[in-house]
Amino acid sequence: MSKISPKHPRAESLRIRERLVEGFKAGLVVPEGLAAHGRGEAFDYVMGEKTAEQAKKAVEAAAAMLLSAKRPVISVNGNVAALVPDEVVELADMVGAKLEVNLFHGSAKREAKIAEHLREHGAKEVFGVDKKFFTKIEEIHSDRRKVDRRGIAAADVVLVPLEDGDRTEALKKLGKKVIAIDMNPMSRTARAADITIVDNIVRALPRLIEAAKKLSRLNQVRLHKMVDDFDNTKNLKSMVELISKRLKNISR
Prior knowledge:
Blueprint: H1 11-25, H2 31-46, H3 53-68, E1 72-76, H4 78-83, H5 85-95, E2 98-101, H6 108-120, E3 126-127, E4 134-136, E5 146-148, E6 157-161, H7 165-173, E7 177-181, H8 188-192, E8 195-197, H9 201-215, H10 220-229, H11 232-251
Parallel strand pairs: 1-2, 1-6, 2-3, 6-7, 7-8
Antiparallel strand pairs: 4-5
Helix pairs in contact: 3-9, 3-10, 3-11, 5-9
């Protein structure tokens, strides 16, 4: 990794880019993933690269939903594996979730590399790489349609960080609850999900882990109430208003 001065105004952003480039060189990330990160990074700049209060509320609700789920699954793509491998493994252990590799630009070779990378960071089991367990979600028209019968296909709650709208909508039609991490509060993914955390994944995952630790002491009744009390539409509207306000301040 290149030496990045801590005095640089975008030091953390540059470090994230470096991790993605390393992930690209290792075969975890595809070029399209770099472009997708750039879209999210633009929103993060507007937000001042800080976690908004709206995102903190969504994190609490998301942690409650994961802890109250019977069969939670965390979907992992190349960018997630490159940026937060330790955190995604820790969160899965914390909430009893399965990890499944699921790629928009899929290949058996890249799936295997991502699974191995997760195992190197402590994952005991990774789904989405064994052909004999594959099934398809017909409503999805990308490589993401291929899912593991033991994982996403059987899940009641799916965490889909860095997601595309088609799969989120398809998972909802199948009756699954969806938690999204998306820097764009106006995206189809953000609007279709049950809970959307509008934040950079490198900040969202550690917050989810801490929230899960705190809420793990609560009973199921209280966890379900936290989920029921969360209004995703209202929270997203508040985020859009916040972004609009930030843009107005920047343009002055």
